[in-house]
Amino acid sequence: MVVLDDGKxxxxxxxxxxxNQLRIRSTTHTEEHWVSESVGDTYVASVGATGIDSxxxxxxxSGDVFQLINNNTxxxxxSLIAITASAPxxxxxxxxxxxxxxxxxNTQVTxxxxxxxxxxxxxxxxxxxxxxxxxxIQGLSGGIVFRTIITPSTFFANTAGTLVLPQGTSLTINYxxxxxxxxxxxxxxxxxxDTETTQ
Length: 199
Fold this sequence. Notes:
Layout: H1 31-39, E1 42-46, E2 55-57, E3 62-70, E4 76-85, E5 91-96, E6 99-104, E7 106-108, E8 112-113, E9 124-129, E10 138-141, E11 144-150, E12 154-165, E13 170-176, E14 183-193
Antiparallel strand pairs: 1-8, 1-14, 2-14, 3-9, 3-13, 4-12, 4-14, 5-11, 5-13, 6-10, 7-9
């Protein structure tokens, strides 16, 4: 008789049903959940981390408001982009790999680790518009627009793990206020590091 025992040496045998099929129980969860709980490498970066509760766009003002750069050799996976505006109707643009010159009108923020027991720090650069003038972060140019949205008051882009930033690449968020009124604007990005590319 063949007996399948636990590989950890606990002496527990595998369970087989009446037709000789091995009984298996499993729990599934997202890679992001596992990375946060088991590795402690999932983060959120937002405008609010600057100490500014939201960005104020006067009528017709527009510009780059948020830039995320992956400095890590491990791929960064963006899982969620969250946008909140005090009124709908602005134009939101997501841009791949803008060329970075000398930046002005920006402040850098540190992403928050979503595993509160983890001491890990994201190897990333996050630039946020500092509101000194009404035209966003200065010193960024070019890039490839990959999504444009006429924003509702609240917008969540769940990327399902398809938005991947290898080392040295970036995501920039641009907002154009065409609503005809002053807008309060907030945005944030949730991301984690892909364990399959961890060195």
